């Protein structure tokens, strides 16, 4: 499940734009993982196999295709420390087909309204420190980051390459299906902030993801999970489809805290629709977020 040689494995892929391709340092990559994007679309590389998540019956997988991403061997085995929160029945989805099929075509549209996106960018401006290394997990063609915030690097992840390649804020990205393999191809303590927007609701093994995020986050770093009341219903596990908005906040917080993250902050706000509808008093998409910090 690890990269070979000096630990830097960048598979050559002719589909990737030159700005994202690094020199091919080895033939293959090591361990890999999965995730869906903010725009909710994905396209998994053919080399990305089902892999070990620390849960029974799952085998190890090769590293997912990485574009401009250095894969290191130095890492802590966080899987053994994962604390399960969900019952197996709560992980089931109405549509049990491979997520890659659902996200195969890029969706270059906004799934959340302007009011939500504006509030999200404002939250990022408040919480993400300057010159941070940011992981945009389950990303897409936009990252909603403030334009005037200097960042050292933004690493993207998702299931659809066209969406990720279109995203101007990403310095590198990789493709992976997190519902098949939850092990992230990042070194320990390498990220300052992880962002997940409208993505957590599709995770079937969120405990393993939260545990891995704790591993790759630097002490004092944070994770920001944002969502609204929208979803692709058939692709969300029952823990999400059968719960209320407040339940969603508590569920995300409980999973994070069980893996060792600090006591989570919950944000629940109404928004005002933009344009004429806002003038008429219509509400926008409700804004929810769970924010937690890695203990120092």
Protein model, in words:
The chain has 296 residues and is an alpha/beta fold. 20% of the residues lie in helices and 17% in strands. Helix 3 (161-166) links the parallel strand 3 and strand 4 (172-175). Helix 4 (206-216) packs across helix 6. It is globular. Residues 1-74 have low confidence and may be disordered.
Task: Please describe the topology of this protein.
Blueprint: E1 66-67, H1 99-102, H2 114-127, E2 132-137, E3 151-158, H3 161-166, E4 172-175, E5 191-197, H4 206-216, E6 217-227, H5 238-241, H6 245-258, E7 265-269, H7 275-279, E8 287-293
Helix and strand composition category: alpha/beta
Portion of residues in beta strands equals 15-25%
Q: Averaging pLDDT over every residue, what do you get?
A: 77
Strand order of the largest sheet: 1-4-3-2-5-6-8-7
* Shape field: globular
Overall radius of gyration: 18 Å
Largest sheet: 8 strands, mixed
| H/E element order | EHHEEHEEHEHHEHE
Low-pLDDT stretches are 1-74
Write down how many β-strands occur, each being a DSSP E stretch of 2 or more residues. Answer: 8
Span from first to last CA? 28 Å
Helix content range of the residues, please?
Answer: 10-25%
Our count of helices gives 7
Keywords:
single chain; 296 residues; alpha/beta; 20% helix
Describe, in short, the structure shown:
The chain has 296 residues and is of the alpha/beta class. It is built from seven helices and eight strands; from the N terminus they run E-H-H-E-E-H-E-E-H-E-H-H-E-H-E. The chain is globular.
